[in-house]
Design a protein that fits this description.
This protein has about 90 residues and is an all-alpha fold. Helix content is about 55%, strand content about 0%. It has 4 helices and no strands. About 20% of the residues are buried.
Length: about 90
């Protein structure tokens, strides 16, 4: 079950990546975003980071360990954005 914040980030993923046939509300917050989960790749990560930057003003650095951990799951990505977004 997604939280309200996770629903927003899930919809952002679907929109930013044009994920055909993926319903944002069906993305498991604890499933991996990369590999066997949603099957995203490094190009998708760049697209997601750009979309998050534009929508929330959150900068995600590729060489930052926190950013790598944030991209693990929908839940971790949402937590990262919530912690860093500008009010």
């Amino acid at each position: 079950m997604q939280t309200a914040a996770q629903q927003i980030i899930a919809q952002l993923l679907v929109d930013a990546l044009n994920l055909e046939g993926v319903n944002a509300s069906e993305i498991d917050p604890n499933a991996p975003l990369f590999g066997e989960g949603l099957g995203l790749d490094s190009i998708d990560a760049l697209e997601i980071a750009l979309a998050i930057s534009q929508k929330f003003g959150v900068q995600m650095q590729a060489d930052d360990e926190q950013t790598r951990k944030a991209f693990s799951t929908l839940a971790s990505l949402t937590e990262f954005v919530e912690a860093h977004k500008k009010q």
